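Researcher: Quick sanity check before group meeting.
Model: Go ahead. Protein one:
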Amino acid sequence: MPVKVFYTSVSGSIEIKKKQQKILDVLSAKKVEFEAIDISQDSNTKDEMREMANDPTALPPQICNGNEHCGNYEAFLEAIENEQLEAFLKI
């Protein structure tokens, strides 16, 4: 199953935009197949992201592999720093 990155194209937060872009850039650079899912286009998608994260207040970006939640931006960065990105992404 492909890695899913839940993001929003409509955000007033520069911090969220930077985090989202960093994840997409790293995955692209490492040639990881992924699907970018914009939660701003459909509220059901946002609900799906929050359900997978098991957090009713989860904000993008969130990363999943199939229907299994991998983590948020901070967990993603930690995996990169520890050279455990593949384990984090469950690929």
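Researcher: Fine. The other one?
Model: Protein two, sequence then structure:
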Amino acid sequence: MAANRGQGGIQQLLAAEQEAQHIVNAAKSAKMARLKQAKEEAEKEIAEYRAQMEREFQRKLAESSGDSGANVKRLEQETEAKICKLKEDAARISQDVVAMVLKHVTTVKN
């Protein structure tokens, strides 16, 4: 009878071990499924973010290229104004510069 009980106990232990193994396998499967789902969700979010950034970039590109004619005209006007200012400044001080250069060239130092 004791041998019979020992056999029954071993059978119970083996059954419990198999049940535990099934529980562990089920948990691993659930974990892998959740990781796969999380990866898919993350990839979806990344794709949505990338598409949003691309739309924003294209919008800004369209805005800036649409204004390129206006920007060119504005830059040309600014450049012309700066050139006129430089010419005025040069004309205003050219006599002083010529006098200073002549003074230094004609002065003899020992």
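Researcher: One line on it for the slide.
Model: The radius of gyration is 43 Å.
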